[in-house]
Design goal:
The structure is a single chain. The protein is an alpha/beta fold and about 350 residues long. It is built from 13 helices and 13 strands. Helices cover about 40% and strands about 15% of the residues. The strands form two sheets. Strands 1, 2, 3, 4, 5, 6 and 7 form a seven-stranded mixed β-sheet that branches. It has a six-stranded parallel β-sheet with strand order 10-9-8-11-12-13, with helices on both faces. A hairpin with a 4-residue loop joins strand 2 and strand 3. It binds nicotinamide-adenine-dinucleotide (NAD). Nicotinamide-adenine-dinucleotide binds next to helix 5 and helix 6.
């Protein structure tokens, strides 16, 4: 295997692996390990070029530093991408080679699931490196992160209501949930239990029907959900849902959900700010999953109670972000980045 360093300013290490035998062509970006080893998922995608893959891995690795910093996981930020169409390139040989590549970084990068990479793939990677997280409980991992992400989002929605309305009571509040997959459906259960009025939408009719039948929630079309007059819009499906096209229709007072990269561009965060819509920045409110994984690295290994205790700090992180936002008169999305950068800079100064 050919492993080559690609120096990139602002990143501790960026490395490429090419392996003829397995066909592996992958990049790992270690953005910052001031707070701990760089943890971030492994993404497989048919990028058009290595440059495109590099842009993505750099952006994602930096995002992981910010996410872990604000969530106080004790980890740094990194990411890996494997270039290729999952239907064509996935093989045992390829994942074993990827494991050897990750192992060569000596534990400074720890991998996990991401787009097109499942637990089954990681189990193969694990055979050639120990630097794999998020495996099944029976394999000593922390298991499926989704219920933990949903718990963090639920607590974040309550905190947002507390900040915006002066009470975090959810009874009678109307929450519109876009996407009821692994995270969205667990969130809806919690919201209904807390007395909220919930409307859901999903591209998969069966998922909507299951929740309508089980919990008596209301259903909306996928194109309607974002325009519903409600207290909270909770995006739990795709990224970039707040954009030039959708923002004029938005009637929610709060945006708080699980989806990554909710804002199409950072300027859309300013639009929310100027309209007085409270935004819970995506990587702050959806950190429950990474917090849960990070507990694997606590002394003594994974303990669920410790994970829940740490997830329960998400509301405080959000309140810090909103305080910065209102004091400095900057969008919450920018305030979150500022908070993250300060946490890393302070740790660097102490080191
Ligand atoms: P999932 O695939 O289980 O669920 C996503 C759901 O969205 C699916 O049911 C899908 O049918 C639906 N959907 C797709 N397009 C839609 C549309 N246009 N309108 C409405 N619904 C649509 O994914 P998940 O694990 O529940 O994750 C949801 C979001 O949260 C993703 O953006 C993910 O990146 C983010 N996230 C998840 C976790 C986690 O722990 N799973 C952690 C952090 C962030």
């Amino acid at each position: 295997m050919e492993i080559t360093d690609l120096p990139v300013a602002g990143y501790e290490r960026v490395v490429r692996a090419k392996d003829k035998e397995s066909g592996l062509h992958a990049l790992v970006a270690i953005h910052d390990t001031t707070l701990g080893p760089a943890l971030g998922g492994m993404r497989m995608w048919p990028y058009g070029s290595e440059d495109e893959a590099l842009t993505d891995v750099l952006r994602l690795a930096r995002g992981m530093t910010f996410k872990s910093a604000v969530a106080h996981t004790g980890l740094g930020g990194g990411k890996s991408v494997v270039i290729g169409d999952p239907r064509a390139v996935k093989s045992e040989k390829l994942f074993l080679a990827m494991g050897r590549f990750i192992d060569s970084l000596g534990g400074r990068y720890i991998t996990a699931e991401d787009v097109n990479i499942g637990i089954g793939d990681l189990e193969v990677v694990r055979r050639s490196t120990r630097w794999v997280s998020g495996l099944a409980r029976e394999d000593g991992g922390s298991g499926n992160p989704s219920p933990y992400t949903a718990y963090g989002v639920f607590l974040g929605i309550r905190a947002a209501c507390g900040w915006h309305f002066g009470t975090d009571e959810l009874r009678g509040r109307h929450v519109a949930v876009q996407g009821v997959g692994a995270v969205g459906s667990a969130l809806v259960e919690r919201l209904v239990k807390a007395g909220a009025r919930v409307t859901v939408a999903d591209a998969r009719e069966d998922r909507v029907k299951a929740l309508v039948d089980k919990l008596g929630v209301a259903a909306a079309g996928v194109d309607e959900i974002i325009g519903i007059a409600c207290d909270v819009f909770a995006p739990c499906a795709l990224g970039a849902v707040l954009n030039d096209k959708t923002l004029p229709n938005l009637r929610a007072k709060i945006i708080a959900g699980a989806a990554n990269n909710v804002l199409h561009e950072s300027r859309h965060g300013r639009v929310l700010f100027e309209r007085g819509v409270l935004y819970a920045p995506d990587y702050v409110i959806n950190a429950g999953g990474i917090v849960n994984v990070a507990v694997e690295f606590a002394p003594g290994g994974y303990v669920e109670a410790e994970s829940l205790r740490r997830i329960e700090r998400i509301p405080e992180a959000l309140r810090q972000v909103w305080s910065i936002s209102s004091e400095e008169k900057i969008p919450a999305s920018d305030a979150a980045d500022r908070l993250a950068m300060n946490i890393v800079a302070e740790a660097k100064a102490r080191a």
